[in-house]
Write a structure and sequence with these properties.
The protein has nine helices and eight strands. It has about 200 residues and is α/β, with parallel strands linked by helices. It has a single domain, classed as Alpha-Beta Barrel (TIM Barrel). The chain has an eight-stranded parallel β-barrel with strand order 1-2-3-4-5-6-7-8, surrounded by five helices. Helix 5 links the parallel strand 4 and strand 5. Helix 2 packs parallel to helix 3 and helix 3 crosses helix 4. It is globular. Bound molecules: 4-methyl-5-hydroxyethylthiazole phosphate (TZP) and magnesium ion (MG). The site of magnesium ion has 4 residues, from loops. This is Thiamine-phosphate synthase. One of its GO terms (biological process) is thiamine biosynthetic process. It is an enzyme of class 2 (transferase).
Length: about 200
């Protein structure tokens, strides 16, 4: 599967509840989202597997891959397209081994120390951030700003998305910093019209 990082949607259970998880994601994909990550820190594995299967069915034929946050067992059980791991979420190499060559595997990177010690071998992309402070993620790392983002992208051996506090009007700055595109939660999830909110990222 070709990986298009132009507009990466990360879900949030609270924010997506406004229209429903599947409805929000399907609308966002109509609006141009190119990659979807199912992220829910509190759901049980069984709940997440059920959500991932329903999302997978809804996305079938769209060409938009579904990535699971953190939980390799959920990615395996739901036959998802990939896994996104944080710095403390275990081993990307083990995930590659378990999921196979065709899976999409991403890693969050917050700073140059993490960048310097990562092994790009098992990875397809990096998620860099937060660019700005955000209330969507608790206890996030220090914001990079666009200059910090550009410096981190310059040191990246892999294509990258930027995340954290990004809105539709930031697309040009994200790409100018060298990232492939923005990854967003609240700019799409929880908006009155998620399709229009996604489309706004492509407006010139
Ligand atoms: N990782 C770094 S910031 C963040 C994550 C998951 C939350 C991004 O949410 P929002 O609403 O797009 O700022
Ligand atoms: Mg994590």
């Amino acid at each position: 599967m070709r990986i298009d990082l132009s507009l990466y949607l990360v879900t949030d259970p609270g924010l997506c509840a406004r229209h429903g998880l599947v409805e929000t994601v399907v609308a966002a994909v109509r609006g141009g989202v190119t990659l979807v990550q199912l992220r829910d820190k509190h759901a049980s594995d069984d709940e997440l597997i059920d959500q991932a299967r329903r999302l997978g069915l809804a996305l079938a034929g769209s060409g938009v891959p579904l990535i699971i946050n953190d939980r390799l067992n959920v990615a395996l059980a739901s036959n998802a397209d990939g896994l996104h791991v944080g710095q403390d979420d275990g081993d990307a190499a083990a995930a590659r081994q378990a999921l196979g060559e065709r899976a999409i595997i991403g890693l969050s990177v917050q700073n140059h120390e993490q960048m310097a010690r990562l092994d790009p071998g098992p990875l397809d992309y990096l998620g860099l951030g937060p660019v700005f402070a955000t209330t969507t993620k608790r206890n996030h790392a220090r914001p990079l700003g666009f200059d910090g983002l550009a410096a981190l992208v310059a040191a990246s051996p892999l294509p990258a998305v930027a995340i954290g506090g990004l809105q539709a009007e930031h697309g040009d700055q994200v790409r100018a910093a060298g990232a492939q595109g923005p990854a967003v939660i609240s700019a799409i999830c929880g908006q009155a019209d998620p399709e229009a909110a996604a489309r706004a990222f492509f407006r010139k």
